[in-house]
Design goal:
CATH class: Alpha Beta
Helix content: 40-55%
Radius of gyration: 13 Å
Number of domains: 1
Number of strands: 5
CATH superfamily: Response regulator
Strand order of the largest sheet: 2-1-3-4-5
Shape: globular
Largest sheet: 5 strands, parallel
CATH architecture: 3-Layer(aba) Sandwich
Amino acid sequence: MSKILIVEDEKSLSEALKAKLEKEGFDVDVASNGALGLVLAKEKKPNLIILDILMPIMDGLTMLDELKKDEQVKGIPVLVLTNLSDDETMSKALQNNTFDFLVKSDWPLEAIVEKIKEKLA
């Protein structure tokens, strides 16, 4: 069973995404900020991370930088799911382990789950 870590401070979205992914057979953990996400990534070593950018305590770009510094977790693929769509943020995110950058408002949950299934297939 593939393990997924959702790092998202918007509780309604993280809960809906978690429920959808668990229904598809994934083992899912959730962190509400980048600092907790970093701890869980190192502890759980998920097969994939879904990461928001704008979060309290540690933002997603900082978490990406921290993941890149750690040999044990730097290879974990990351799907950035955020409300930000500016070129600078997208460029910074894609320089790391990000395999896709999705704007929340443009992607229904079903399509996000399909992207994840494709990546982990």
